[in-house]
Amino acid sequence: MTTDTSRITPEEAGLVFVTPSAFADEPRFHEACRVLRHEDPIHLVTSDDFLPFHVLTKHADVLEIELHNTEWCNAPRPVVMTKVGEAHRQEHGEMLRTLIHMDDPDHRAYRTMTAEWFLPKNLAKLDARLAGLAKQAVDTMAAKDGQCDFARDIAMPFPLQVILAILGLPESDYPRMLQLTQELFGSSDEELSRGQSMDDLMAVINDFFVYFTQLTEDRRAHPTDDLASVIANATLDGQPVGIMETISYYVIIATAGHDTTASSMAGGLHALIEHPDQLQRLRDDPSLIPTAVDEIIRWVTPVKHFMRNCTTPYELRGHRFEPGDMVMLSYPSANRDEDVYTDPMRFDVGRQPNKHLAFGFGVHYCLGAMLARMELKALLTELVPRLRSIELAGPPRYMQTLFVGGPKSVPIRYEVE
Ligand code: HEM
């Protein structure tokens, strides 16, 4: 891991947003964001492989664009797009149509289908289940003789078990889903992806289609009270939802809540090990766990960006955008903005207020934000009091990504009760 943070120019800084390996070097990445926030907060990124876009690095700018969802749409490119990917999209159309590909009025209609399921009242029913999974996770640590890879052995399985439990999928499908979600989201990281080409990506998406088509047929024939049944039997204007949208819905639920939450857990533990005073604060005062959860999510910010597409001339910070222009919302940069945070590079488990944008904002605000917070809270509530000692057993390694990521390996040595 290179961490030479000296003399980064705005041009070099801009290139990190199209360089997956740059996200694996956190100090350098954050320094690049700092340079842009100060020297060129609306920076044009051009490269051989990607369509050009401006990256927004200030908290206020990210927030403003999220709130103007008529002037700035998710379609047609909700995430950063390679030129090859764009040619493919133009020739074959979208491979998926999830909530993040949609704008109003469709977005509102599709979001409403599951919104009730994600309300606090309904999620509260999961509390005991989450506490059970957290206990199981720490018991697993206890059984491992004081050494494990926290990212791989604990953080990865935990949120996947939650997602599959809420979808109502059998435990025997866990390995298959784990592999597919990692292949879809880790697709810039050679260790995690099936391959780097469009064909490889399409093969992964095709596997999702096969799996979830069977699930839809089953839940239409035998509905239960799980989220998969809500999705399979949803209607729009009295008609069943199209197969593309139905499958896409499962894909977003199965994937959006996995690597994001796993990365927060693994990155959070890494942060607590690096800041033993903060771990001690949590031990001394467990009532800080809720603020610690949000500080961990801010610190890790596992979703590295979403894009917005300009629909009408728009001025931001003196810069004029035209229809068709794209901006990248840099959540990690917004969450280290000196204009919003006192001492943003300090990890502070008691930080309040903490108006981070790790879950986005506005109409697309993360549907699973509350569930993600509950998962992290359950894990910390179980782990912190049982932890006698903990240290790194080797250097953590971070994922190469442009979209979702965090640590892929956090080797630890510990004593738990
Ligand atoms: C720490 C964990 C998580 C983080 C950091 C995170 C972050 C995000 C972000 C940044 C967005 C886009 C928001 C925007 O465009 O303004 C999003 C959307 C979404 N997230 Fe999460 N997420 C997490 C966990 C989850 C979980 C557990 C689920 C559900 C099982 C979930 C489901 C979704 C869905 C369905 C959307 C699309 C919402 C829409 O477009 O209306 N996420 N998330």
Short description:
By secondary structure, this protein is an alpha+beta fold.
Could you explain the architecture of this structure?
The structure is a single chain. The chain has 417 residues and is α+β, with helices and mostly antiparallel strands. It has 18 helices and 14 strands. It has helices at 10-15, 26-39, 59-67, 83-92, 106-115, 120-123, 127-142, 150-155, 157-167, 174-185, 198-221, 227-232, 243-256, 259-274, 276-284, 289-300, 331-334, 369-386; strands spanning 42-45, 53-56, 72-73, 147-149, 235-236, 239-240, 305-310, 314-316, 319-321, 326-330, 387-392, 397-398, 407-409, 411-416. The protein has a 5-stranded mixed beta sheet. Strands 4-14-11 form a 3-stranded antiparallel beta sheet. The chain has a two-stranded antiparallel ribbon with strand order 5-6. A hairpin with an 8-residue loop joins strand 12 and strand 13. Helix 7 (127-142) packs across helix 18 (369-386) and helix 16 packs across helix 18. The longest helix has 24 residues, at 198-221. The radius of gyration is 21 Å and the shape is globular.
Mean pLDDT across all residues, rounded?
A: 93
The radius of gyration over CA amounts to 21 Å
Residue fraction in strands: 5-15%
- Helical fraction equals 40-55%
Number of strands: 14
Low-confidence runs:
none
Bound molecules: protoporphyrin IX containing FE
Count of helical stretches: 18
Strand order of the largest sheet: 1-2-10-7-3
Distance between the termini: 34 Å
